[in-house]
Structures are given as C-alpha cells and as structure tokens.
Design brief:
The complex is a heterodimer.
Chain A lengths: L1 H14 L8 H12 L4 H11 L3 H10 L11 E6 L2 H5 L2 H12 L12 E6 L11 E3 L2 E3 L4 H20 L1
Parallel strand pairs in A: 1-2
Antiparallel strand pairs in A: 1-3, 3-4
Helix pairs in contact in A: 1-2, 1-3, 2-3, 6-7
Chain B lengths: L1 E5 L2 E5 L5 H7 L23 E4 L6 E2 L10 E3 L3 H16 L15 H8 L23 E3 L9 H9 L5 E4 L6 E4 L15 H5 L5 E3 L3 H9 L4 E6 L20 H11 L3 E4 H21 L6 E2 L4 H10 L13 H17 L6 E7 L3 H6 L5 E2 L2 E2 L3 E4 H10 L21 H4 L6 H15 L17 E8 L2 E9 L1 H12 L7 E5 L17 H17 L9 H11 L5 H7 L11
Parallel strand pairs in B: 1-5, 10-11, 10-13, 12-19, 13-16, 18-19
Antiparallel strand pairs in B: 1-2, 3-4, 3-5, 6-9, 7-8, 14-15, 17-18
Helix pairs in contact in B: 8-10, 8-14
Classes of the chains: A alpha+beta, B alpha/beta.
C-alpha cells in the first residue's frame, strides 16, 4: 500500500525537489486532486520529503476545509452552508443529510457509496438551498427532497447490481 | 543597556529582550500561561498584557521587545481587568470539576483564577465534547481541560523534536491532537511526559496506577515489593515543600515500609548491574568489531524514539535492559526462587521519575510466561500522593536501610539519575575491564553539568574512547544526523530523553525550573563524592549475585534475564 502511494504521488513530489515547508499546501492540493483525498500513506511520504512531522501536516490540512482524509464516495454530495443557503434553511438540510447518510461532513460511508462535504458557497445562491452531487446541481432542496434524491441513488445501485 | 520605566520606576533592560524578561528580572511578577523560557514566544494566552504608553492596545509582554524610554504599567486597573476577563473567558469552556482533577491544587489556571479574584462564572460557553484519550500506558489526555496554550506542542516539537501532537482544526473547533486524531498509543509519542510537566492544567497527566497499587497492598495473598529509581530520593521532598536537592533516601525507605511494601529495593542496585553488563558489552564490541558507537538503553523514551525515527540505529543500542526491567526480571526469577514465592503472587511496583517507564513495563519484551516483570510504575508525583494518603511526615521519620539482596548500591549506580551519570559509571567499570586497574580520578568533569551535549575523549591505556552524552531528544536527533552524515569518532553515547536526565524526568515534581534540576544534580554528585563505594563492580551484592546465579556478565543467564532487543515501529499507523 505504502509503495503504491509512493509511486502514485512521486511525480508530484518530484516537481518540488528541494522544497521546504512553504510548499506543503500546494503539494497537499495536488495530491488530493490526483488521489481524491489525503491518505495516511501520502501524508507520511510528504512528511518524509519535506522533513515535517505527520502531526504538523495533519494540523495544517485540518485548518482548511478543502482537504479530506477519506476517499470520495461514488456519490459525492456537496452541501452548501453559505449565507443564502443558510437563510433558506441549509442547517436543517445538513442535519437531514447526516441523519440519512449516517455520516459527518468529511466522511465516506463504509460501502464507499456516499461521501458528504460541506462547502461555503457554490455561487448558485439563486437556487438556495443547493446541493451538488458529482457535478450535478439540485436546487431548492428540502429534507424530503434530499431523502428522495438519496433513495434514487441507492435504487440506481440496486438496478446496477441486478443487471 | 536600555532604560525603561515600569510602574514609575526606572529599570534596566537588555537589547533585544522582551518586556516580560526585563520586568521579571526587576522582580515584577507578571502572570503567564503560554510563556516558556527559552522557547519561541507565541503570545497566545494574552495574560501577560501590560499597558504601554503611546500604544492604543495592551501589548503582550512575553513577545514585545523593549525599546529605549518605554513607559509600562504592569498592574494598572485596565491591565488587571483584562487579565481577569481572559481567565473568565478561559473558564467559560472549562469543566468545573477541580475537586476530581488530577491537578487540583497544582493547576496554574486554578491559581490564576484565585489570584485575580474570580468568584463566579461570568460567561457560559459551549465546547465540543471530546472523549478522554486513555489509550496510552503512560499519559492520558483530557481535551476538554485544554486551554490551547500550546506549551505541550512546543516542548514536543522544539525540545524533543518528536512532534507527536499539534493543533488540529481551526478557530473554536481547535484542539490538540495526534496525526489523524488517533490515540497516543498508536502515535509517534515516545511517552517522555514533558508535555505533562509543562501543561498548566489537567489536560495531560500521567496515567495513575495508585489505585491498583493500593489494592495490591491491601491484598494479603500478594507479596508486594517496590524498587525506587536513583533520582527519586533527591526529588521526592519537593512534593512536600522542601527545597530541591534534599536527599531523603532512608526516610523514603521507611515511608515505603510504613505503607506496607514487604521489600524495598533500590533500582540503583540494578543500575550497578546494568553497568556490569553494559561495560562488558562495550568492551566486547570494541574488541570484537561490533557495531559502534554503542548507545545506552536505559531511557525508554529514547528507545521508542530510535525505533520510530531512527530504526537504522537499533543495532547501536545496547542490548541491556534498563535498570528497572533488570530488577523486575530478577525479582520474579532469582528472588522468587530464593524466597519460595510463586512469581504470580508477587506484585512488583517501581517508583520512577518517568512516565515512559509505565510504557516500558508494559512492553511484551519484558514478560516471563505472560507475567509482566514490573506490574505497576508510579511516578515521583504519585508516590508523593501516596505519602499524603498515608499521612507521612518526613521530618518525623527515622531513616531505614533498604532490603537485601537488591538494596546495596555504589554511588556509580546513584548518579544514573543525572545526564552523564551512566557514562561516568560505565567508564569506571570499563576501565577496570580493559586495564585490570581502577581509574585514578573517578570524576570526569567534562561529562557533568546540564549542557545539552557533552563530548570528550578518554584515554584508557592507549585506547582512545570517543564519548558523547546528550540529554533532550532534540540534541540526540542532531547527534544522530551527524553520525548519519559520516561522523565516526565516537565509541559510546549516553542518551537520556529528558532535559537534564532523569532528574528532569516527566514524572518529577511539577514547577520544573532549571535551578531545581541543577540542585537535584548537585545532590546526586554530592552522594558520589561523600561515599567510599563508588564503582559498580565493587558492589558486593552484585558480585554475590553473579557468583550465586548469573555466573558472569554476558553469560547465558544474563542474556536471558538482563538483555533484550528492539524493533522498528511505524511512524503513522
């Protein structure tokens, strides 16, 4: 596992040969872009390269909302908690999402089907409250509507499995 | 020299220093929470704020440099109000369970609240509930009691270069944790406990085993024995308000007997034994082309540090167990046989200056037939706690001698408690092994003192032995890097994980300052100058043990009981 990670992210790290700790965030971004998340192995390898302790890297990465530490699910749900969506009731939507999916923001379900991420604003305030699943926007989502959307995703999987 | 005015009085300050340093030198007491001497100032807690004429806001004294002609008020009404508010805000998200807290009466937050006259809860804050981390054998963390001063993070990073913990997340969600917020037991933490020593509250404390020891003492079917480490006798008295450096060796022995321990042994005895084995191992390595430089293995924090960060140096570590584990192994073998007690009926307790010793005693390498060699490890602080429970008053105790067969010690075993002591003790015996003669001058001045690294070359009848002594793992890391880069003039290296050695250990009385450590060190070396038995190989009970049981150093039985091996650990599990 560790060796796989090393070969996968080696090209990224090679671009930053001789880099110091100030290169940490761009490296983390590129690794996440490629891998979808920051794994333990990649954090350990980055630490070895930059001579930074893993706790420090984890500390920096958790400071920002953009980094995740579990692989994305097949359905990656981004839920907006920006001002407009908040006014339109996105808090209730988030509560519903965590309840329905049994996930906290940043987590991925064990079957790797769903992952939940909270974002600050998607620039679609006219559609508030808005969610985005794998690039597709869903407008004016209520908890009821969210339950249906999630159900549809699940059904699709059952159909796939039967086919 | 810079002249500044503090509270209307002229005081002198030095170029480049902070307001806090100048004020404290002038005897003005400024409270701090996040400040640590010699480490990077962070200005996180703001408790040290002072009024600076011309500045709009209060400035933090700990990180604000002095300038010519500054006018400062350190205790104006505005300053005091600000300090009180800071404490009240910290208390807004701090549990109110002082009565049940391990740091009750020893808590800086508590005493500052008292000093500043906080009498009621002014703010009610919400805080993220986080569970206790009791995953480790040495330390436990209570994130809810943490005030985010960052002292533990800095000592772990800057002094020990371990960085097991750091700030995680942001803003009101910030907490201190390990990488991936896992338990300390699976982190790179080496259990040295320096974080617990610097923590101002009860957020990081040692895992206490006082209850288990009390239960064992009350259990009549158990034979409870205790050993105490070389440095305990010169630090225990501080728990009772005595000045650092008072040696209470004999009184401590009588206190332990009074508590009901059936045998009181001295770990300095097995320190002598360690020297016999370790010096023989060194001579063996030098004469047979073994791996050099050899590195001491008494400090369990250092051992885990090598296993985690420098596994390539594992062959350099002496195979000797630490004195605690040597004595533990002997108690449940030799002693048990001799007394006719089944090893499972013995409860072996040790009093150590160290939190990492708790972890060490739990290692699978140190068991015989699934029984741990040492059952419970208590720190100096926990022994202090037990003394208070038993109502022991040190000034009324008559000193007593420890028990045979592990009671006698040389002063070489005693100085194990200070950085450089193991080295000095080992050289006394190595000299005899190589030349057949005692050393003329036993004191090696170059190895004494609190400096982070001490190096010298000793000429043993034409054999030049390069030696280095380091304390604090940051210093150890720098030395290892040098050796990795090709340095090859060293034969023997002593490492103690904590600054100053065991006398500055993570289990020692709190309120650690350099002067206290200095006094503790002086006390140990005073014992060494005053006593006549100063070499481990002249300890007659050690000789007797070899005659009766172990045969000779590095014998098969010694290897089985007194030696071990270590293995690489993953940095992030």
């Amino acid at each position: 596992m560790a060796n796989d990670t090393l070969t996968a992210i080696e090209p990224i790290l090679d671009q930053y040969k001789g880099a110091a700790r100030d290169a940490l965030i761009p490296i983390l971004q590129e690794v996440q872009e490629q891998e979808g998340y920051l794994s333990r192995d990649s954090i350990r390898v980055i630490g070895e390269r930059l001579r930074l302790p893993t706790s420090k890297i984890y500390g920096v990465a958790t400071f920002y909302n953009q980094f995740r530490f579990q692989p994305k699910g097949k359905y990656h749900i981004m839920l907006c908690r920006g001002t407009a969506c908040h006014v339109k009731g996105s808090k209730k939507l988030l509560d519903a999402a965590t309840r329905l999916l049994k996930l906290e923001p940043g987590q991925t379900s064990r079957d790797r089907l769903f992952s939940l991420e909270v974002v600050a604003c998607m620039g679609a305030c006219g559609l508030a409250p808005v969610i985005n699943i794998n690039g597709e926007f869903f407008a004016k989502v209520t908890p009821m509507k969210l339950a249906k959307i999630i159900e549809q995703c699940r059904e699709k999987e059952v159909v796939h499995a039967e086919a | 020299m810079i002249n500044i005015v503090a509270n209307g009085q002229k005081i002198e300050a030095r170029e480049g220093e902070t307001i806090l340093t100048a004020l404290r030198r002038a005897g003005i007491k400024v409270p701090t929470l996040c400040h640590m001497e010699d480490l990077t100032p962070t200005g996180a807690c703001r408790l040290c704020v002072v009024e600076l004429e011309g500045a709009q806001n209060l400035v933090p004294a700990c990180s604000y440099p002095v300038a010519e002609g500054m006018k400062i008020k350190s205790h104006s009404a505005r300053v005091l109000a600000a300090r009180k508010t800071i404490i009240e805000l910290l208390l807004a998200s701090h549990p109110d369970d002082c009565l049940y807290c391990a740091r009750n009466n020893k808590c800086e937050l508590q005493s500052l609240a008292a000093e500043l006259g906080v009498r009621h809860r002014r703010f009610y804050g919400t805080y993220t509930k986080k569970p206790l981390d009791i995953s480790g054998l040495s330390l436990q963390r209570d994130p809810e009691k943490c005030i985010l001063c960052g002292r533990c993070v800095r000592v772990c990073e800057e002094v020990q270069t371990v960085s097991a913990i750091d700030f995680i997340k942001r803003g009101s969600k910030t907490f201190i944790g390990t990488a991936f917020d896992q338990g300390l037991n699976v982190s790179s933490c080496i259990n040295c406990g320096q974080c617990a020593v610097v923590c101002p509250t009860g957020a990081i404390v040692e895992r206490s085993y006082v209850d288990q020891v009390m239960a064992a003492l009350a259990d009549r079917s158990k034979y409870v024995v205790v050993q105490h480490a070389p440095s305990i006798s010169v630090t225990l008295a501080e728990e009772f308000g005595y000045k650092p450096g008072l040696d209470v060796d004999g009184k401590m022995v009588s206190a332990l007997r009074w508590m009901g321990f059936q045998r009181v042994f001295d770990t300095s005895f097995s320190a002598d034994l360690t020297i016999m084995e370790e010096a023989s191992e060194l001579v063996h390595r030098v004469q047979n082309g073994g791996v050099l430089p050899m590195m001491t293995s008494c400090s369990p924090g250092w051992i885990k540090f090598v296993e985690t960060f420098f596994p390539e140096f594992i062959p350099n570590l002496s195979t000797c167990k630490s004195p605690q584990q040597m004595l533990g192994a002997l108690i449940k073998s030799f002693f048990a046989e001799k007394q006719g007690i089944a090893p499972e009926d013995i409860v072996s307790v040790s009093i150590m200056p160290c939190t990492a010793k708790k972890f060490e005693s739990g290692r699978s390498e140190f068991q015989q037939n699934f029984l741990p060699d040492v059952d419970y490890v208590l720190t100096t602080r926990e022994l202090g706690q037990m003394c208070r429970m038993f109502g022991i008053e040190f000034d009324k105790l008559a000193p007593e001698a420890p028990d045979t067969p592990f009671g006698e010690r040389s002063s070489a075993g005693k100085i194990f408690g200070a950085t450089g002591g193991v080295m000095e003790a080992a050289l006394r015996t190595a000299h005899l092994l190589i030349t057949g003669k005692e050393m003329d001058e036993l004191k090696i001045a170059a190895l004494r003192g609190l400096k982070g690294r001490k190096e010298t070359t000793i000429d043993i009848e034409g054999l030049n032995v390069g030696i280095a002594v380091v304390n604090g793992l940051g210093n150890a890391r720098r030395l290892l890097e040098e050796i990795k880069a090709g340095r090859n003039d060293l034969h023997f290296i002593e490492v103690m994980a904590c600054p100053g050695g065991c006398i500055g250990g993570g289990g020692q009385p709190l309120g650690l300052d350099k002067e206290a450590v200095q006094r503790r060190m002086k006390a140990l070396y005073k014992i060494d100058t005053e006593e006549t038995l100063r070499q481990s190989h002249n300890n007659k009970w050690v000789k007797r043990l070899y005659e009766e049981y172990l045969v000779k150093p590095l014998s098969e039985r010694s290897h089985h009981l007194l030696h071990t091996h270590y293995s690489q650990r993953e940095l992030l599990r």
